[in-house]
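The following block was generated as part of the benchmark described in Methods. Ligand: calcium ion.
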Amino acid sequence: MIKRAVGFSLFMGLLLLSGCDAQPSDESISQDGNGAKTKIGGIITFGSYEQDGDTNNGQEPIEWRVLAVENDHALIISDKLLDAKAYNRDFVDITWEKCTLRSWLNERFAEAAFTAEEKEAILVTDLVNEGNREYAVDGGNPTQDKIFLLSIDEAKRYFSGDDDKIAFTTPYAEKQGVGVKKGKGWWWLRSPGDDAEYTMCVRHDGSFFETGRSVHLDYNGVRPALWLDMSI
Ligand SMILES: [Ca+2]
């Protein structure tokens, strides 16, 4: 218990120091402390999605990695790459606000993965969509999303290094076309690359690809993130 309390205080300290772009807009935080059961770095299951590639046996529970905990609220990201999608259907200048992957995550993916009750437990998050500072590419307007991709600043904040960012694909995602190397795949971030037609990614070895891939490439993996209300 003491360790948990210390860890939590440290985490809150980091939040205060760094500011936090991806925060739930819901200000009400329950005080019953259930969130303390959810350990940063731990794995929880929530929702379900086709993963083993056998649709006859139904969808499999989604495993999520806990990136941050704030009382009853937890920032989680899918442990595996769940699907293969383009960041945007067409190869054009685009931002997170307008990209087709944002609408896919919050519409078709949300419908497939979560029950009505589960959807209620997903908080709406205010997202700052920072641009590419090195190449002066605009990141677009702030957005409010239930389901989102991490920005590069968030990925740097919540992962400890390249090894930590390595993600394996599911058999289903591989069938959908995710490029795979020894089971590992690339995954999209929501930050622009060196031009507005390119978006940053994490490579299969966990390193950042900061100049970005063409937004219409459809063989990158999708690793959804969301803030979950654990009290519901
Ligand atoms: Ca299945």
